[in-house]
Write a structure and sequence with these properties.
about 400 residues; restriction system; 2 domains; Adenine-n6-DNA-methyltransferase TaqI, Chain A, domain 2; 4-stranded antiparallel sheet; DNA-binding; alpha+beta; 23 strands; endonuclease
Amino acid sequence: MLENVKKPVIRFAEFDDAWEQRKLGKIADFNPNSVLPDSFEYVDLESVVGTDMISHRTEKRESAPSRAQRLAKQGDVFYQTVRPYQRNNYLFELPYDNFVFSTGYAQMRPHIDSRFLFSRIQEDRFVKNVLDRCTGTSYPAINASDLAEIEIRVPLDRAEQERIGITFKNLDNLITLHQRKCDKLVSVKKAMLEKMFPKNGSNVPEIRFGGFTDPWEQRKWSDTVDISTEMVDPKCGDYDDLPHVAPGNIESFTGRVFDNVKTVKEENLISGKFHFYDGDIIYGKINPQLGKYAFMRFEGLTSADAYVLNSKNGLDQKFLFALIQSDYFYRYTVSVSKRSGMPKINRDELNSFTYNSPITVEQKRIGELFLSIDNLITLHHRKLEKLTNVKKSMLDKMFI
């Protein structure tokens, strides 16, 4: 009988064989020798994000970086040895023989199913095992020899390896699909913000909805935006069950509120906070270069490090939120907040801001457009998070 055999918590019904514990160095060849082609596609440590290759570049052998050493073969697994907690690893399944990876990756050529091994190295316990063997603090790293000594459990039945590998490969493909959709929508939104707001010195945008031709009118922030002064005492008990949203709970440049928001009572807040309502805008005044803003869909309290904003005198609230995300507003807030210590934009500086806006009907069309894009981005983010959580749960239960 084999020693150190065990079975996972959940598995495909048709498999019942035990799993065997083996060192990585026994189930894969590490950094196999190869001769580089005269010209190749180079993959460095920035080229892989998650399990997806997002870029590569053409290099000549005689002028290529010295780290370009790992010639890929279909089925090879490339493991990021520098800062492995980032989990930027890649399974090479492309039908090409001219891709070369950086020595920042350990190259594994498996004797077992490649997809199974690739799935296994993404599991939390494996990553912890790697980190325990890393050296360095700012840039923790593991060498290939130490990596090869790590033991994992492997199904004795090759067919089970393949079923598990395919399952996680399909999940990775879905995660990559939604990530690319998110990235594409963010890029589209950025381009549209640049073109649907007038450039500095102009009073008409580059593109606009049909039927609108009038020049935009210059307006002053102080005349059209109310900065709330409704500060409340979170200790009084009246707000215990409301969420507390600080700039740290908001994703930069997207307006997305993270899922890490806690209630006022859970936060045990003691200093004064601003009260906001459904439809208000939160804008982070500290470090405006970080782009912390959100269009709120619920009532709550926010940090004194943020402003609560509402439009007035004919300015549409949703248009105001789009304006805050424009490059014109961003450059202004960053320029006036530069000072010694921590950058901050104060009320007087905001109230001095001038901008161009169209008639109310066009404002509403613009504001609705950008909020609809935000909703699509949020939808894909939620699907992405759900798939990521499903994958994490399955990794925990299908491996031992």
